[in-house]
Write a structure and sequence with these properties.
six-stranded mixed β-sheet, 9 helices, alpha/beta, 12 strands, Rossmann fold, about 250 residues
Length: about 250
């Protein structure tokens, strides 16, 4: 059974159609890359999968492990195993990063019928994962993303993903604004989470991220739908030739 199956998905925002018949099947344990120019609907697709309000699905279905998730709230989708790393992570003034992470872990534990995580167990867990991602202890004490650099925000997102252990993770232009060192650290964090039953959808404009997170399948997104799919070599072709042919065809 496919982990994620999207069938003829159409969606609009404020009456304007953005997605125009998206079909996508993601098997367990695979990494799919979604590449395309700005304004084609890539982020719209990620937001709809994760359940962000403001989008109207007019046709089609999204299945997670064979179950239609159309009626699930965003928190229900998260607890079911979907995770979205934002292109622009939001700031939460007044809430320490460690407090936020502990609340997220406990929310998932409640969904699983477990008690809250022990304070010492949490500290050991979060500090261990933070060290792997090059996150300093003082960063965990700061308000969520407030005053963080671009690289720190993306590391914080990957830390949250590492702690929540989702079944399906969407990385929406995680490489945006990262220098080479930060890109390498974030990519290593993602690669460390690759397992036989966890899948990723990596959304990006550029091939450089896919040199670090090597995908199994690459899709070209243009005109609100997937217009071509192939192996990792397709990303190199797009880097060399651009998207002009696909945009004009769409």
């Amino acid at each position: 059974m496919a982990l994620i199956e999207i069938q003829n998905l159409h969606a609009s925002v404020d009456g304007k159609e953005i997605l125009k018949g998206v079909d996508l099947v993601i098997e367990p344990g695979t990494v799919h890359a979604l590449m395309g120019p700005n304004g084609t609907g890539k982020s719209t697709l990620s937001n709809i999968i994760s359940g962000r309000p403001g989008y109207q699905v007019t046709e089609g279905r999204i299945l997670l492990n064979g179950e239609d998730i159309a009626d699930m709230e965003p928190d229900q989708r998260a607890n079911a195993g979907i995770f979205l790393a934002f292109q622009y992570p939001v700031e939460i003034p007044g809430v320490a990063s460690s407090t936020f992470l502990k609340a997220a872990i406990n929310a998932k534990r409640r969904f699983q019928g477990l008690g809250e995580i022990d304070a010492m167990e949490f500290l050991k867990l979060v500090k261990g994962k933070a060290k792997e991602l090059g996150i300093r202890d003082d960063m965990l004490k700061r308000p969520v993303n407030v005053g963080f650099s671009g690289g720190e925000k993306k590391r914080a997102d990957i830390l949250q993903m590492a702690l929540l252990q989702p079944q399906f993770a969407i990385l929406d232009e995680t490489d945006s604004g990262l220098d080479i060192d930060a890109l390498r650290v974030v990519s290593e964090g993602v690669n460390s989470l690759r397992t036989a039953d966890r899948s990723f959808l990596v959304i990006t404009h550029y091939q450089r991220l896919l040199s670090y997170i090597v995908p199994d399948v690459v899709h070209v997104f243009a005109g609100g739908k997937i217009v071509r799919s192939g192996g990792p070599e397709l990303a190199e072709e797009l880097e060399a030739k651009g998207y002009a042919d696909y945009v004009s065809a769409a």
